[in-house]
Amino acid sequence: MSPVSAVPSVVSLLAVAHRHLRLATPAESADATTRSYLDDGRCLGWYAPPVPRWRVAIDAERVGAPVPTALARRFGTGEFWARWTRAECLAKLTDVPMAIWWQRHGLEVPPRIDWLWRTLTLADLVVTVAFVATDRPRDTADVPLPDGDPGSRRPRGDADHPAAAAHYRK
Q: What is the pLDDT of residues 26-57, one digit of tens each?
């Protein structure tokens, strides 16, 4: 299965991401595919079947957690935890330390055609689930994903492509 043909599988998983996320203790989350550890001792795990040739990462933060002052000065507080969890996931998937990510991108999502993500609220958490293709398509026209911001604004690019549906916040 090529990364391009797997896009519908990834989009389908993202559409029902809440069904594949479980909040528990770290010990109870040992069998999760990937995990995010919260500052209050809880652990959020991802329990979905793997998609061949795609890696997955999750990050979660408490909705009501205060934004650290230094980060608020640097990045602002508007939708901070949603932007933070997206950046954290994409940094994990690209093996870039978060401090380097900040220097390169801030908390923004740079255009790239081989990743898909969804940011959602689950109980008292803001959660991002993100996927990146492990084999980048040779021709970037193979996957015409939008390169605009996720959210309600119409993204630039081919918004009718099935993968475009994954770039939203719910």
A: 999 999 999 999 999 999 999 999 999 999 99
* Total domains present in the chain: 1
Write the DSSP assignment of 72-141 as a string of letters.
HHHH-STTHHHHHHHHHHHHHHTT--HHHHHHHHTT-----TTEEEEEEEETTEEEEEEEEESS--SSGG
The answer to whether the CB of 143 falls within 8 A of the CB of 125 is: no
Domain range for 20 = 3-169
Contact 114, 132 (CB under 8 A): yes
Phi and psi at 99, nearest 5°, equal -65, -35
pTM here is 0.77
Q: At 62, is the secondary structure helix, strand, or coil?
A: strand
